[in-house]
Amino acid sequence: MMTQARRQVMSVATLAAVAGTALLIYLLWGVPPTLPSGQTNNAALLLFLLGMLALVFGLGSLVALALHRRWPNLAGVRDPRRRADPWVAARQGVLLALAVGIMLLLILLRMLDVAFALVTLVVAGLIEGFFQNRRPR
After folding, report:
1. What's the CA gap between 10 and 87, in Å, rounded?
2. What is the pLDDT of residue 1?
3. Which of 1, 20, 74, 125 could make an SS bond with 54 (beta carbons 3.0 to 4.6 A apart)?
4. 23 backbone dihedrals φ, ψ, rounded to 5°
5. Are 41 and 35 in contact (CB under 8 A)?
6. pTM of the complete model
7. pLDDT 10s digits, 75-125
8. How many CA atoms lie less than 13 Å away from 131 in the CB half-sphere?
């Protein structure tokens, strides 16, 4: 049986993934990356980053939802009889999208190397660990 919260998270994540995919397809097929003057098209670049963030958020949240059903410990659930809160998957999708967005910005600035990529992913994991271990009010 699917709960209302799980349906909401699935709907939001699916909508984000579809919107991100549609935006990326439009940009890759219809918008040139440079202006006629030869400069970089900043608007297309910004929309590309936005589409990538939406796509990664949507797919990351959907994958996290599927993984939490099988392994609820990934959502911070200690009791095996309890189900994971679906909004945890959305939070994990947002953290993954932020990590990918930071790495994309570092690529654009030509500053990304293995150390920055690993540190970005480790920091995202540490933030998620903080959220899972804090005490509820």
Report:
1. 10
2. 63
3. 20
4. -65, -40
5. yes
6. 0.90
7. 888 887 888 899 999 999 999 999 999 999 999 999 999 999 999 999 999
8. 17
| CB of 79 closer than 8 Å to CB of 51 | no
Q: Taking the mean position of all CA atoms in its chain, how far away is CA 72?
A: 19
Query: Any bridge partners for residue 40, and if so which?
Result: 34
Q: Are 11 and 61 in contact (CB under 8 A)?
A: no
Distance of CA 9 to CAs 58, 87, 106, 123, 125, Å?
9, 7, 30, 24, 21
CA neighbor of 100 nearest in space, from 71, 130, 123, 76: 123
Dump pLDDT digits (tens) for 26-44: 999 999 989 999 999 999 9
Report pLDDT for 45.
Answer: 94
Q: What is the DSSP letter of 85?
A: P
**Is the Cβ–Cβ distance between 122 and 130 less than 8 Å?**
no
What mean pLDDT is predicted for residues 51-66? 97
DSSP 82: S
